[in-house]
C-alpha cells in the first residue's frame, strides 16, 4: 500500500472512477472494500489518516449489543450478531472471543439476564462465539477477582467479540488495494464537481503538499461520519441537519484493577448506558458515556463530569478503587446518530445506518457501528451502483478474507495483529537495533515503525503512535516520551530532515497531552453510593 502510487493514479486519470468514497473510517473502508471486490474502479480519500476519528476510539468490541436487545431492537441485534460471526471468520488475526460477566447483586437480575442472554445466543445461531451460562457467586469471583463481593449473588457469563479497531482499518485499506482500489490518506475533499447539476466528482487538496487535484467519478459516496452534513451542504447548497453528535469517552487503567480474563459488564448506569471494564493489550478499558455535543471535531475533549462519572461507577463495582491518578490515557470518540423525532437524548437515537441520495446524486451513508461495517458497505454499494448507472454485481465480502488473514496467530500478542505479515515484521527484528522497543513502558519495537512507513502508509508520528501501534491509548505519557525515537526512524526511512522530525515531535506532544487525565485530583474524592 503506497500513497505515492495512488496519487500518481489520480493525476493520470483518463476516465471517471466508477465510485469515489469520501471518508476513511469504518464506513468508508467497508464501502471501498465492497466496491473494489465487486470489480468496480474505486477511489477512497480521507482528510486525515485512516480511522483518525471515532473508528480508532471504540470500546474495542465486535458485538451484537445486549442493551439493544433490551430496547427491543431485534433487527439491529440479529444483524450485528451475524456480522460479528463473519468478521471473526474473515479476520481471525484481529478478532477473537471475549467472555463477559454481568455481576448480579439480586436473585432477580441473575435470572433476568440469564434468560435474556439465552435469547442473545439463539439469535447468533451458527455464527455464535460461545454459550452463556449462569454463574455461582464463587464462579463470578473467579472470573472477576476484583469485583465488589458484598451482597454478590453470582453472575451471568456470555460471549462477544474483541478486536483492534485501527489495525482493522489499516487491513481494510490494504484489502481494498489488493482488489485494485486507490486509497489516499491526508487528501481532503474541498468541493464537488458537477455536470448538468449532478455530482460528477470531487475537488481534492493534498494536505501534505497543498496540491489541488480534480477527480471525476460516476458517483460520490459521502461516508464522513460525524461530518456528513458538511458534504451534504456542499452538494445542495443548503444547511443539512441529519446527524446528532454524541460523545463517548474511555479511561485506560493498569491491568491490576481488573486482572481477570473476562470483561466486566454493568447493564445499566445512571444515564441508561452499559459500562464495560474490558481487558485489552494488557490494560483495562473503562467506558463509555453518551453525551450530546453541539460540534463535531477531529480531536474532541473529555468533559470532567464524564471522567468523574466513569471513575465513580467503576468504584461501585471494583474492590480496587481507581482514581484519576491511575489513568494511563483518556480517549474520546464521536458517534454520528441519525436524528429521529424530537428526542434530546442521544442514547435513544437510532444506531442503525441510514442511506440517503440527494437531488444531485450524492449518496450519503451514516449511523451504524464498527460491527456492521461490512453490511453497511454492501448496502451502500448496492444503492450507489443504481445511482451511477453501472452494472450491479453480487456481494463477495460475506466470506472474503481480510488482508492479513491467517489460521495461526503469532505467539507474540503484539505481532499477532499483523496476521500473515507477522513473519515479515519478525524478519526486520533480526536487526539488533530494530529489535529494541521504542520505550521501556511500551511493547512496540523499532522494526514496526519501519514496517508502518513502507507498508501501511504511515505519514506522521501520530499515525504510528496512535493507530499503527496503540501507544497513545495504552500510555499517553510514555507515547510522548517515545515520539523522538519514532520521529528519527521515520525521518530516516522517509528521507526527511531533522527539522521535520522536530516538528513532528512538537505536534504529537501537543496532541497527546489531550489524552492525559487532567487534574486527576478531581476524582480522588468520588463518592461511592
Describe what you observe in this structure.
The protein is globular. The model is unreliable at 341-350 and 524-529 (pLDDT under 50). Helix 16 packs antiparallel against helix 17. It starts with a helix and ends in a 17-residue tail after the last helix. It has 17 helices and 19 strands. The longest helix has 19 residues, at 476-494. With 529 residues, it is an alpha+beta fold. The protein has helices at 3-11, 26-37, 66-70, 74-90, 107-124, 137-143, 165-178, 228-236, 304-317, 373-388, 413-416, 422-428, 446-455, 461-468, 471-474, 476-494, 498-512; strands at 19-22, 42-45, 61-62, 96-104, 133-135, 154-162, 182-184, 187-195, 198-206, 212-216, 220-222, 243-254, 263-266, 275-280, 283-287, 291-293, 329-338, 353-357, 363-367. The protein has three domains: 3-54 and 166-242 and 347-388, FAD/NAD(P)-binding domain, CATH 3.50.50.60; 93-162 and 244-340, D-Amino Acid Oxidase, Chain A, domain 2; 413-515, Alpha-glycerophosphate oxidase, cap domain (Helicase, Ruva Protein, domain 3). Strands 3, 4, 5, 6, 12, 13, 14, 15, 16 and 17 form a ten-stranded mixed beta sheet that branches.
Per CATH, the superfamily of the largest domain is FAD/NAD(P)-binding domain
How many DSSP E strands? 19
Mean pLDDT: 93
Please bin the fraction of helical residues. 25-40%
Low-confidence stretches: 341-350, 524-529
CATH architectural label of the largest domain = 3-Layer(bba) Sandwich
The CATH class of the largest domain, by name, is: Alpha Beta
Q: How large is the radius of gyration?
A: 23 Å
Shape verdict: globular
Percent strand equals 15-25%
Main beta sheet: 10 strands, mixed
Total helical segments: 17
Distance between the termini: 53 Å
Structural class: alpha+beta
What is the number of domains?
Answer: 3
Work out the oligomeric state of the chains in this entry. single chain
CATH topology of the largest domain: FAD/NAD(P)-binding domain
